[in-house]
User: What shape does this take?
Amino acid sequence: MQKSLINILVSLGISPIPSWSYIEKEQEPISKDFFANYLYPMMGATTIAVFFGTLFNKKEAVLECAIKESILCFITLFAAFFISSYVLNKINVRYFQMSNNLLKTQMFVGYISSLSYTLIMIQSLLPELFFIKFANYYILYIIWTGSEHFLKIQDKKRLIYMISSGAILYFIPFFVRKFMLFIMPGLN
Assistant: This one.
């Protein structure tokens, strides 16, 4: 399971076009175990990395602070994934004339989000690598290739799709985190 997770993650990061083509061909067997064998372990690993990163890299290395930050991270990742998938699926149907296929949209969002989760893990554990934040822009290229090879978006609509889905995948986690801090000020 972990070997497959790492293989897909590395291949998406290094060569996204063949990876999206493989995911498209193998969609049926992959989709059965997508959440249990790929997405949820990525969310869990990210949460654990945030926990240890907060515990060991903050000046006030307090267990309470690490627990709060990891809870906030997990809630943000989980809620943002499902909200982003739902919103993107509605946009796919309404503006890009795609079929209403929430599972395929969830797979698309999940694979792209897993790269973001990896960057969050690296930033949490190695905060001195400030330049890793620029790798978030590479995710736009992953969206571009995935929209062509996985979702089959028309060429003339792909730029708009990349910008809109990139904005959704960036801003929804940001707003979910801010909302969680607003309704639960104790996490701050």
Notes: The chain has one domain: 2-187. The helical segments are 2-14, 16-25, 27-57, 63-95, 102-125, 138-149, 155-183. The radius of gyration is 17 Å. Residues 54 and 177 are 16 Å apart (CA to CA).
